[in-house]
Amino acid sequence: MEKLIYLDNAATTKTAPEVVEAMLPYFTEHYGNPSSVYGFAAANKEVITRQREIIADTLGAKDNEIYFTAGGSESDNWALVATAEAYSAKGKHIITSKIEHHAILHTCEYLEKRGFEITYLDVDEKGIVNLEQLREAVREDTILISVMFANNEIGTIQPIQKIGEIAQEHGILFHTDAVQAFGQVPIDVDVCHIDMLSASGHKLNGPKGIGFLYIRKGVKIRSFIHGGAQERRRRAGTENVPGIVGLGKAVERAAMSMEERTAEERRLRDYLIERIEKEIPYCRLNGDREQRLPNNVNFSFQFIEGESLLIMLDMKKICASSGSACTSGSLDPSHVLLAIGLPHEIAHGSLRLTLGEETTKEDLDYVVDSLKEIVQNLRDMSPLYEDFLKKQK
Predict the structure, then answer these.
(1) DSSP character for 225?
(2) SS3 331
(3) What are phi and psi for residue 287, nearest 5 degrees?
(4) Considering 108, 192, 319, 326, which one is annotated as catalytic?
(5) Dist. CA 156–CA 189, nearest whole Å
(6) Most buried residue, 38, 83, 165, 169, by most Cβ within 10 Å?
(7) Model's pTM, two decimal places?
């Protein structure tokens, strides 16, 4: 097959043609700085406001609660660091989970070095946070709970509404990293009691380098980037007008197609899972079978190395990953897979396949056929597999 099969949509997505089309005029025709006073430039302020309204409507939020950022990592950093600074007089204790994206985990490490105490919640074998452990972790000096909406590696969706209820019950701010979930599952910030939410454009067929942080009105967190009055004095820097327009178009597009698109993704996802489980022995589906993102498939294959698997898939023009794109250079096994209880040797043989709106059943058939061949070839070269087979006899 000559066609490139792209199954790494959790890493990034193809920018939709209509998104690119919507952005183009703001590079060449409507290029004014929105902070300038003359009409040509000031008109872009109204354009930005319209994109805020589009995004806010999808979350059940108000447009003045949406703050544009450079992406999910900045939004996560802002939510944690600015909350820590603003509420340190109340307390210095933050609760998160062991399977968060590194934008959260590394920011927590940064805060620990500055005197904050972090509680890292365990997850079960499916990757779901233990709500009782969360309740027990709450203290008088707890100022923030940050738990991701859905995991970027294994696709497990957390019981966000229940987590939000616990936070609200104790008067604690609740932030969720919704970078993988936004545009894939319905989210209502009021129903889920969410005070802050991070999202990124390039995960939903929008442009890279643009995202937003939802901050509920009344949450008193400080500026993260200083130097100007943009974003209602909370995030300095000339607005990325083309990126904001592209993000707004991508969000509008994702919201309109969500029901039909995700239903098809679930159908194809379950077909892919079924074929792999039936046709490739000694494999394990990672993450919750039901409470998972519509497009996420994550397997561990015994007796192989994930890196070799990815290289051989690439030779067949199949794009996949072994986990987060942010840790692709690491030789260590996924912290997420270790947290759900996988031993190192099995965690090393992991594969994440994330479907997109252009994925077809024929694509998946080719992938499974290729995967069967590659896994068998790798196992045939493995002394561990050879020893295993001898013991079976």
Answers:
(1) B
(2) coil
(3) 100, 170
(4) 326
(5) 19
(6) 83
(7) 0.96
| Pair of tokens at residue 349 | 């043989």
pLDDT tens readout for residues 276-308: 999 999 999 999 999 999 999 999 999 999 999
Phi/psi of residue 351, nearest 5 degrees: -145, 125
Do 203 and 55 contact (CB within 8 A), yes or no? no
Identify residue 316 by its one-letter amino acid code: K
Alpha helices in the chain (DSSP H): 17-23, 25-28, 39-59, 72-86, 102-112, 131-137, 160-169, 230-233, 241-279, 306-315, 335-339, 344-347, 361-380, 383-392
Report CA 149 to chain centroid distance, whole Å.
8
How many CB atoms within 10 Å of residue 234? 17
Q: Give the integer Cα–Cα distance in Å for 262 and 269.
A: 10
Q: Determine the Cα–Cα distance for residues 278 and 250; give it in Å rounded to an integer.
A: 37
Answer for the pair 293, 181: CB distance below 8 angstroms, yes or no: yes
Give the span between the Cα atoms of 151 and 178, in whole angstroms.
Answer: 9
Measuring CA to CA, how many Å separate 267 from each of 83, 272, 285, 290, 299? 40, 9, 16, 12, 18
Q: How far apart are CA 14 and CA 131, in angstroms?
A: 36
Instruction: Check if 283 is active-site.
Output: no
Please name the residue that has the structure tokens 């409470």.
291
Structure-block tokens of residue 326: 């942010």
Query: How many CB atoms are closer than 10 A to CB 141?
Result: 14
Instruction: Quote the Cα angle for 192-232-211, to 5°.
Output: 55
- DSSP state for residue 234 in the 8-state scheme: T
Partners of residue 283 on adjacent β-strands: 301
pLDDT tens digits, one per residue of 110-138? 999 999 999 999 999 999 999 999 999 99
Q: Is the CB of residue 97 less than 8 Å from the CB of residue 160?
A: no
Measure the CA–CA gap between 254 and 258, rounded to whole angstroms: 6
Distance linking the first and last C-alpha atoms of the chain:
38
Is 150:185 a contact under the CB 8 Å cutoff? yes
Res 81 pLDDT > 90: yes
